[in-house]
Amino acid sequence: MEVKESRSSSKNDHRDCGGGGGGGGGVNEDGRTLGDKCRYIRKKQRAKFYIVRRCIAMLVCWHDPDK
Asked: How many beta carbons lie within 10 A of that of residue 38, not counting itself?
């Protein structure tokens, strides 16, 4: 299922999930259910954390070859 990101969304999209386990809920104005929106946000956050973890691992394991 393809989910389109709306340009009017703010940085506080995580509030729409309600902290629960991604329930059903009604359809909002963009045509997405609350559960779909929460899954999309969770997927984006997982990707961001993956990138951060890789960068930290690279910095920790990095050593200067001149020394």
From this structure: 22
Beta bridge pairs of residue 27: 33
Share in percent of the chain as helix, strand, coil (round to 5): 50, 5, 50
Predicted TM-score of the model (pTM): 0.49
Query: In the block, which residue shows the tokens 């969770």?
Result: 42
Which residues fall within 8 angstroms of residue 17, CB to CB, at 6 or more apart? 34, 37, 38, 41, 42
pLDDT tens, residue by residue, 40-64: 999 999 999 999 999 999 999 988 7
Which residues on adjacent β-strands are paired with residue 33? 27
